[in-house]
Amino acid sequence: MPIRHSIKQSLSRAAWHAYNTYRKGLDYNTQFSRTAEILGAPRETIQAFQKQRLEALLQHAYQTTPYYRESLKAAHFDISQIPPLEKQDIREQLDKLYSTTFTRKQRIRNATGGSTGTPLTFYQDRNYWNQRNLSVYYFDQWAGWNFGEPQLVIWGALADLEADRHWKHRFNNYWRNQHWLNGFHLTDTAMSAAFEKMHQDQPQTILAYPSSLYQFAKFIFENSLTPLGKLKGIIASAEMLHPHYRTLAETVFKTKVYNRYGSREVGLIAMECAEGRMHINCRDLYLEIDSPDPYTEPGEILITQLNNYAMPFIRYRIGDVGLLSDEMCPCGNALPVFAELLGRTTATFRAKSGALIHGGYFTQQFYDIDGVTQFQIIQESLKHCVLKVVTNEKWTEATRRYLVQSIQDVLGTTVVVTVELVDNIPPSLSGKREYTISKVDTDVDNLQKP
Predict the structure, then answer these.
(1) Domain match, 122 and 90 both
(2) Does 445 score more than 60 pLDDT?
(3) What is the Cα gyration radius of the chain?
(4) Which candidate, 265, 294, 262, places its Cα nearest to that of 118?
(5) pLDDT digit string, tens, across residues 218-276
(6) Which of 77, 96, 273, 449 is 20 to 30 Å from 1 by CA-CA measure?
(7) CA-wise closest residue to 313 among 68, 78, 47
(8) Same structural domain for residues 63 and 211?
(9) Domain end call among 285, 311, 346
(10) Does residue 449 lie in a domain region?
(11) 216 neighbors 181 (Cβ within 8 angstroms)
């Protein structure tokens, strides 16, 4: 390793330690060791820890949260008897879901456009974020990541599109020892620059949206480029990892792709191990399958987040489908695993310039948009998009202009955006609600197989 790389890595590792000590306290290293101890413990120990955390959360929710106190009417109850928390419940009764022990300043606002096309606003607390990050650190190490080591991140970087936040984005990338390729706006020029940066920094891991990872791997493959250095692993997160995405990425980069499953609402849910099994994060979550038999019949996934006391998520219907396995994983980790996991897919749009725009860009435009109940964006051609919107009483003409402008900002100012106000947006024939659909060919499935 060149001396300058070694120095940068040491500085970044020290910065990570300082950051985590500031956020989590002087006992950060002890907390991280305890996290690893729990997530690597025997099944019985994991279940006992989870049971204790679940009982504490349910008592807290009943005693301090109006929504659960009104709906449960009792301090002792079986979690299976609690009705699932639906997204509509959160939108309609948000004020009753707050814990009365947290002040407004102690609640951290978060939002998602929703991969069902339904915007959702919710709140979390600082401890939730601290615990979430500890688990992410643990699981990402399965893919070879470690503090301070260089990493290529192919992610949605709105900061690259907003000049007033650009310096913060660059500063954070520097001390984390990360280089970002903006997954919201993939151009040949940007991908070429990222490839050259890989040669200079020799990242140990890649963290990426699966669809953006696929596009980057395809660019390298089509241009007969050969990545230098040795990657320890690739972490694919935030959307479905399709088999052809994995195959091309593993072939081009000559390393394993590890699938990571999570959501903005509840954090990291599961992570793939070296044996290819998706292990469930029982330290932070209690997971159920809404099915008569979760080991033989797939059902919708219900999540109880064990750390978010500011706004408890209990039996939250996240919108994905799964099936559990009763087998122990040969990797040796005792966390339970999914036998099957069916999440949601994200479309990739193509701009008139040829740039590829990740569907997540459009989702983020709907964060905190109060006038929209549901949405769907359809790219009919390079010149025309249709935005279907189910509105509510807060919809305004200014909201319409903002959304049209946001679409034209990335697809081109001459693109015609037709806004259709509709009463309902039905799911597709598969039963999934698709919030971004592109009818423009962005995926070259007829590539000659490597």
Answers:
(1) yes
(2) no
(3) 22
(4) 265
(5) 999 999 999 988 999 999 998 888 888 899 999 999 999 999 999 999 999 999 999 99
(6) 273
(7) 68
(8) yes
(9) 346
(10) no
(11) yes
User: For residues 385 and 379, is the Cβ–Cβ distance under 8 A?
Assistant: yes
Asked if residue 318 belongs to a domain, the reply is: yes
- Alpha-helix residue ranges (DSSP H) falling in 108-264: 126-140, 166-176, 188-201, 210-222, 243-253
Q: How many CA atoms lie within 13 A of 233 on its CB side?
A: 19
User: Rounded to whole angstroms, how far apart are CA atoms 368 and 310?
Assistant: 19
Q: Residue 174: inside a domain, yes or no? A: yes
Determine how β-strand 416-421 pairs with β-strand 384-391. parallel
Residue 56's φ and ψ, nearest 5 degrees, are: -65, -40
CA-CA distance, 227 to 177, in Å (whole number)? 19
Q: Is residue 447 part of a domain?
A: no
Burial 190-210 (b: 16+ CB within 10 A, else e): bbeebbebbeebbbbbbbbbb
Taking the CA atoms of 247, 248, 254 and 260 in sequence, report the sign of the dihedral they define.
negative
Asked if 397 contacts 404 with a C-beta cutoff of 8 angstroms, the reply is no
Q: Provide the whole-model pTM.
A: 0.83
Which residue's entry shows tokens 């935005």?
387
d(CA 99, CA 310): 5
50 contacts 286 by C-beta, under 8 angstroms: yes
Residue 443 pLDDT more than 80?
no
Tokens of 256: 């394993």
Same domain for 174 and 208, yes or no, is: yes
Which residue matches tokens 């390298």? 220
Q: Which residues contact 51 (CB under 8 A, 6 or more apart)?
A: none
How many Cβ atoms sit within 10 Å of the Cβ of residue 405?
12
CATH number at residue 265: 3.40.50.12780
